[in-house]
Amino acid sequence: MQVGIGLPAAIPGVEGPAIVEWARRAEQRDFSALAEIDRMHYDNYEPIVALAAAAAVTERILLTTTILLAPLRTNHTLFAKQIATLDRLSAGRLVLGIGVGRRESDYSVSGSDYHQRGSGLDALLERASGLWRGETPGFGPAPALAGGPRLIFGGDSPRALARMAKYGEGWIAGGGFGDVFRAGAESARKAWTQAGRTGRPRLVALSYFALGAGAREAADGYLKHYYDFVGPFAEQIAAGAPTTPDAVRERVADFAQAGCDELILMPCVADPAQVDLLADALAD
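The structure corresponding to this sequence follows.
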């Protein structure tokens, strides 16, 4: 199983130089991917822009959105151009993880209809995929990979899984543990087979981490704030974040045993030293 690392671009107050330094260190320490989550109604950096900054200071590491709230990008042609640009700038290193999200405030603050987000994503995919395939002469740049960037999809509803099987190369689970991932992965495999796809979907998952002095307090503070919309359940999410090297290794082993192809560990602390602490924990 590969292990990627999230950028700290969703941790409120992080400055640009820390994000750039984080990206450099992540490539130096051989993580498989740099990832960024997406919110509209939150103090985070926009992920397409943040990953473009990471692309400028790296050469090999994959750049992944985990996930991009694509229905918020209502100008579908502009969206397709932005994604194709990032894909070309990074020499084909983009893995576009997309979904609809579950926070209604992300839609209301942008003037979008939360209840139409699924149909909005379907319309966006039809338009963007046609542009990436070259169906509109003069549109560019062409993505680095013929037909468009690699796509993975979040969500566990039947509609989301059908969308994954039609357009994507795989499925990505949200935060949690291996047992939750197993259930979602089985549903993804079934949707894949029912759609007549050969082989199997690539299976990706997210988890959180914090290491070093004050790690437990940092994880609690960040995750309870980020997940305040779920009420008391935010306490359980925060408590589940590994905050010691042993706990990180156990989390990685749990997902590997569950059949995960790539686990992306998202940070709760913005200090770039976290990159080295995580790499050292995984190397022990």
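Residues 37 and 66 are 5 Å apart (CA to CA).
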